[in-house]
Automatic annotation (TrEMBL):
This is Site-specific integrase. It comes from the Bacteria. Keywords: DNA recombination, DNA-binding. Transmembrane segments: none annotated. Residues 1-23 have a biased composition (Basic and acidic residues). Belongs to the 'phage' integrase family. It holds the Pfam family Phage_integrase. Residues 1-40, 154-176 are annotated as: Disordered. It comes from Herbiconiux gentiana. PROSITE patterns: TYR_RECOMBINASE. Residues 174-381 form the Tyr recombinase domain.
Length: 392
């Protein structure tokens, strides 16, 4: 129900009741003035009516919640991984709009934030990721009838320039960094005789992520078939600095990874020399879990031996690489494995499945330069095509 009435002061009072029976009213200078629709009572009521019929109607007071408060409310009912929660919270806090009411945020505000990130020289992928996270939060607000439309819709981040260099020390390299064979050999030699040596070997010759390596058990190794079964990852819990989470791998990339026989032999020797840890049989030394730790995908009783924690892993890695004189990140060993597969002629889908990427396009984004490198097979194929054509 809606109505328009003229007040004693000459202004026009437009009012309507929403589905809950609550009355909403505004005052305007004109009842109906096509030349000044924003000051027209009839124009406002027409907009409300259209929004109701199109399903876009939002009660005005629903959008008064701040972006920060809405995010906290949204996060409390989402089953996000800790890393996802951390990244989305970072996007909210970094945007400078945490204290702004949802209804006051417009597309221009989101574009201004993107421009600010670019000016701060954040990596294009970082900018796009934060924009994507903000868009997901605003989309949730739309679905929850907090706002009528998503202010991030149509806002574009900077173009992702595919990496140009395959060299680790190239000054203009914007792609992954690839350790040299000498670097990997030095790291393995330095870690020789320690339980950590197998972690370096699995990253360099199977391409597993740090958290996935922490989550490996002896039961995940099919020594006869030459397969590593990637079933879980270990992550720090963002909400509790002294706790961890054991979850399925990133992007749901549970997978079986074929590995070289030489790596299987190293794992076999590792188990013979160092054994496994805890009742679960972790490959890497872990620690007794504190009481109250809730593991999502791999419950362990309090007092049981858990996996190696990522923080302890990083400490061991830093000690090893410094002793070896190698300045690189552990994640770069994963790039080393990918580069080796691509150089040997593996196609993008094969590499994607081995690494557990979400889709082949992500693999191409990361390793574009390696896939488009010189390949004599294309030359030979075109040579045969040319010879057959001219012969005909």
């Amino acid at each position: 129900m809606s109505s328009i009435q003229k007040r004693p002061d000459g202004k026009w009072r437009a009012r309507y009741r929403d589905a809950d029976g609550k009355e909403h009213a505004r005052h305007f200078k004109f009842k109906n003035n096509p030349r000044d629709p924003e000051n027209s009572a009839q124009h406002w009521l027409d907009q409300v009516t259209t929004a109701v019929h199109t399903g876009q109607y939002v009660t005005p007071d629903r959008g008064r919640l701040t972006l920060g408060d809405y995010f906290d409310e949204m996060a409390a009912r989402k089953d996000w991984e800790s890393s996802t929660h951390r990244q989305m919270r970072l996007a909210v806090d970094d945007s400078g709009m945490r204290g702004r009411r949802l209804q006051s945020i417009h597309r221009a505000d989101v574009e201004t934030y993107v421009r600010a990130m670019v000016d701060r020289k954040l990596a294009p992928r970082t900018v796009k990721t934060r924009l994507m996270h903000l868009g997901a939060i605003f989309n949730g607000a739309v679905l929850d009838k907090r706002i009528a439309s998503n202010p991030a819709t149509g806002v574009k981040g900077p173009a992702l320039t595919r990496n140009r260099s395959t060299a680790a020390d190239a000054p203009d390299s914007i792609g992954p960094t690839f350790p040299s064979s000498d670097d990997v050999s030095a790291l393995l030699a330095t870690a020789e005789g320690t339980p950590f040596a197998i972690a370096i070997a699995i990253a360099a010759f199977a391409g597993l992520r740090l958290g996935e390596i922490c989550g490996l058990t002896a039961a995940d190794v099919d020594q006869a078939g030459g397969v590593l079964r990637v079933r879980r990852q270990v992550q720090r819990d963002a909400s509790v600095s002294t706790a961890i989470e054991i979850r399925p791998p990133k992007y749901g990339s549970v997978r079986d990874v074929l590995v070289p026989e030489q790596l299987v032999e190293r794992i076999r020797e590792h188990i013979c020399v160092h054994g496994t840890y805890g009742e679960v049989g972790w490959l890497l030394p872990g620690r007794v879990l504190p009481a109250g730790l809730a593991d999502v995908a791999f419950p362990i009783a309090p007092g049981g031996v858990g996996p190696m924690w990522p923080r302890a892993f990083e400490t061991e890695w830093t000690r090893t690489r410094r002793a070896a004189g190698v300045d690189t990140k552990f994640h770069n060993l994963r790039h080393y494995a990918a580069g080796g597969m691509i150089a040997a002629g593996c196609d993008v889908v094969t590499v994607q499945r081995q690494l557990g990427h979400k889709n082949p396009s992500l693999t191409l984004d990361v390793y574009a330069a390696q896939f488009r490198g010189p390949d004599s097979r294309a030359k030979d194929a075109l040579s045969r095509l040319m010879a057959d054509t001219l012969a005909d």
